[in-house]
TrEMBL record:
Organism ancestry: Eukaryota, Metazoa, Chordata, Craniata, Vertebrata
Name of the featured protein: S5A1 dehydrogenase
3-oxo-5-alpha-steroid 4-dehydrogenase C-terminal domain span: 14-141
InterPro entries assigned to the protein according to its UniProt record, in alphabetical order: 3-oxo-5_a-steroid_4-DH_C, SRD5A/TECR
GO BP, one annotated term: cell differentiation
Length: 141
């Protein structure tokens, strides 16, 4: 999402440089922790890619990513160029949850955590749940 979403934004509000730097540092640090835990500390039995935990986690990650990308598409196209004002998104998972993009990302990271079965991946999934869950609640209100 950190790579796809910014490339697809048509217009947006300026982002303070400090916010950009903090987000970049967070993504780099988290990517390092996830990569390091998977390449250095995690050990998997042969046949792990066929294990039900990996398959279920991978499918959760894939479905979450699809929900996230589709929800972002709906949000990007919510207003016509030059149009302002509040609009409620419709379609996709927005028919079931008001923060469909947040739901998709949370599902992605819990799927990743299940597929990897590492404490680092679970920690990130929980952080995502708490951070995006609170943002989703704010957006819903």
């Amino acid at each position: 999402r950190a790579l796809i979403f910014p490339l697809l934004i048509r217009e947006g509000k300026p982002t303070p440089f400090s916010t950009f730097v903090l987000a970049l540092l967070f993504c780099v640090f988290n990517g390092y922790l996830q990569g390091r835990s998977l390449t250095t500390y995690a050990t998997y039995p042969s046949g792990w890619l066929g294990d039900s935990r990996f398959i279920t986690g991978f499918l959760g990650w894939l479905i979450g990513m699809a929900i996230n990308i589709h929800s972002d598409h709906i949000l990007r196209n919510l207003r016509k160029p030059g149009e302002t004002g509040y609009k409620i998104p419709r379609g996709g998972m927005f028919e079931y949850v008001s923060g469909a993009n947040f739901f998709g990302e949370i599902l992605e990271w819990f799927g990743f955590a299940l597929a990897c079965c590492t404490i680092e991946s679970l920690a990130f999934a929980l952080c995502t749940l708490f951070i995006l869950g609170s943002r989703a609640r704010q957006h819903h209100k």
